[in-house]
Amino acid sequence: MTDSQERAPRDRPRTRHTVVVPASIDMVSLLGPGDEHLALLERAFDAELHVRGNRITMQGDPAEIALAERLLDELVTLLRTGQGLTGETVERVLSMLRAETTERPADVLSLNILSNRGRSIRPKTLNQKRYVDSIDKHTITFGIGPAGTGKTYLAMAKAVQALQSKNVNRIILSRPAVEAGERLGFLPGTLSEKIDPYLRPLYDALHDMVDPESIPKLLAAGTIEVAPLAFLRGRSLNDSFIILDEAQNTTPEQMKMFLTRLGFGSKIVVTGDVTQIDLPSGSKSGLKVVEDILSGVKDVSFNRLTSHDVVRHQLVGRIVAAYDEFDARGVGPGQERPRA
Fold it and tell me: Fewer CB within a 10 Å sphere, N or C end of the chain?
């Protein structure tokens, strides 16, 4: 690598720096199809980038050039782990570097939780990795954040991992069937048909992580149980990985009931989005009050994810951020903005 300093017009300091990419790295993978990743870097930094062979020369603001070099180093490290790069990956690495965190982006994005049918499940943001680490370290973990941040999906992956490694004997997945008021007898059909719409998202995630042919056997044996929250009342759940999804739709009494199901050798993960509460008007959400109650209790962890952690279509993250900004101005959905 070589460096030289020069002065740009208006006496603004600029740096010219050349990075030599190791010969073992495929430049097409690094720069992207049609130089897509290179174009992304040129837009992201106040710098000019030129590529010749495996040499990338950058010229621009010294701080931006230093950050660009760190970004290239992280991308090279990711490629060495066998991961493919996408434009989304490059943007996530850049976001983590600009946040000036102590964790290396390559360490965050290369953490493999679970592999199934040639597909690996990994955290894609720093907050997601901290959430996954918290599940490892604590008996009860809360994951609170908007749709698409991977709260439930990552918890499910950790549950399957725990089952496969024999750290637990069974997985219990639960949701409050709030739209039916937990009074499922009023709905037509068998019990299974009544509860299926509320639990379908959990089944969908499970099919991504476990061979579909084995799921009926695991359900029949009770190794995996999917049930409405009300069905857990009165039970003590030992040697289990227990997930409560959509917890914003629990009442404080239901939340207490659920948490006290914890048995020996078990782990609990509670997920929810406090901005999407479907409880009847005037009812308190158990998820909104539980942090005030359990804050400071040993072995209980609260983790918050934001619009920056959304891993669905990029537009979903922008939609969530727009709603957050709208709510911050004190105007709820369905209300008129105050007139000037």
Answer: C
